[in-house]
Amino acid sequence: MRWPRRLASALMVVVLLVGPPLLLVRLVGWPAIGGPRVAIWGWVRDPLTEQNLVLMVVVLAWALWAFVAYTVTVRTAVRLWAGVRWLRRLPLPTPWQATATGVAGAAALTIATPSTLTSGPDHPATEVGAGYIHDRDGVDQAASSDGVVVVGGWLPRAVADQVGVAVGLLWLRRRLAYRPRRASEDADDLAPLPATVAAIQAATTVRPDSPPPQPSAVVGVLPPGFPAAGVGLSGPGALAAARGLLVTVLLAALRQDSARLVITRRAAQVLLGPEAAFLRPGSGLWIADTVTHATTMVTAASQAAPSSPGGRSVLILDGPPPDTLVTEVATVVVLADWPQATTWHVAADGYTQALDAMASGPRVCVLDPVAAADLLTVTGHLNPIVRDARPQPVPQARIPRQPGPRHDGGEVGRRLRARVLGEPVLLCDGTPLLLRRTAARQALVFLAVHVDGVDSHVMAEALWPGLPAHRLTGRLYTTLSELRTAVRAATDLPLIDRTGDRYRLHPDHVDVDLWHLRAAAAHAASTLTDPATAWRAVIDAYTGDLAAGHSWPWLDAYRETARRLVLDAYTALADTEPDPRRALAHLQDGIRVDPYNADLHQRAVNILAGLGEHTAAADLAERYKRGLIAAGLNPDHVLQVALLHGRTT
């Protein structure tokens, strides 16, 4: 309603500016008098004549119009000048900054997400056809050209993109470490990622068909102009900037083994609070007892295995280092004033200024303790299960009563089917219904995975993470209306059942392929007669990855849950198959579904070795190693990943 009001206001201003002069000129003519002295003398002698009264009214009318014109002119000039000043203050990147940002963004955008890395010859990712509207709901609340705003901080765009890369690697590691038919041991792997991570994912876009990036140096993610020797941090944003630097370097360490960050225990406690007790070293993070211990560690490490050029170690210390030589091999960040080096005053929003210079420094990543801890769960340095001990809901492996023919005067034989395994589509009697907004398809899949329904606020926060609460209700209503409208054009059957503030797909009118998969898996796991047939039914029910081709922030856990059901089926058939070659065929089918699972590859290699086909076994192991490298995983970390989840392979 703003534009109609603005248009009416503009028309009113035009009428006030143009109308009075036209009316006055038409009625009394242009203001003119024979001579100022004569007119004034005549008004003094006889001020109440008809001519003098008319003249006074005309003068007052012109004066009022001049005041209105002056006010409009001044307000317009002020707004134009404000726009000019904003354009003059707009920070334009230098050629070096533009090049560095482009390289970092290209590197972050080129890694494939888990949803697409699973897409193979048997399960291709389907492109969205013409006629769909790719709405970016949830992106506008946080993203901008230079950074991403989240609750608790601000991240440069390149760092936010690296968070998306880290999320993809995290889910690949979880897939790698999963051991089929041991769901109780691997349930922790399905823990959802924190809200901060979901908000960053929603605010950034990742191309689903891009090759993985090459490792980048640590300096590529440090702020431009960051002193090589290091800085001391002061001001209201000092601790937040140190947390941002901690997360930034550890994100880079996921892609570069030579990257090192050393932090003292005291500094970790100051930055993270109680979460520091659960901080675990590894993957580029070293924890030192004291400042002296930290400087000794990094000096010894640099002498034993010098890092690559541009990959200097980073030290975060709670006090100045006693040895100035450490700045030759590391970038030191001190959580206090540092008289021997540059000290930056950091504002709460991340803008910096050197205390010994008048020029402003770069804007750095700033995070509060909660946001920093959320991102450290993605890097693997904080266990999300330890941070949040609340039990996670387990999807119900059942299928509601399915729709049958109607005999109540409605449309006989009409039925709706939601196909969410593969490219999501809603069908009525086999005919696809057009859903023009991607948010509508996302809502369809979200309701499909929550067979018992979900509260509206939970659904809205999952679909649009990071948006203010007052903006969620309208978006959810619009999205569900899109679904209802698409169905209403084909049938009178209700698609969505609402009870209070809880929504679900109507179990009496909608048939969902995911529900059949869950029911088949539950039956196969509990049957005592003919289990092979039951497991084959699970395989037949799995027609592709859940919502293939999409990378919504909430989707990974449910996609992995569905994938593990079919991996369990292939493994069960292989375990009960007396013929090793047929067992090998089942394992190979499972590998096609998940080419990153280490357990399936190990089983296949063992069978090949037992058959005496050592060359084939070596070839399979080598292909698996090359696949991990192409995805950005280090094959040498396979055992380490399994140990981090409390088991060995």
Automatic annotation (TrEMBL):
It comes from the Bacteria. Keywords: Membrane, Transmembrane, Transmembrane helix. InterPro entries: AfsR-DnrI-RedD_regulator, BTAD, TPR-like_helical_dom_sf, WH-like_DNA-bd_sf. Residues 512-644 form the Bacterial transcriptional activator domain. The chain crosses the membrane at residues 7-33, 53-73, 94-112. Residues 387-412 are annotated as: Disordered. The keyword Zinc does not apply. The keyword Secreted does not apply. This is Bacterial transcriptional activator domain-containing protein. It comes from Micromonospora maris.
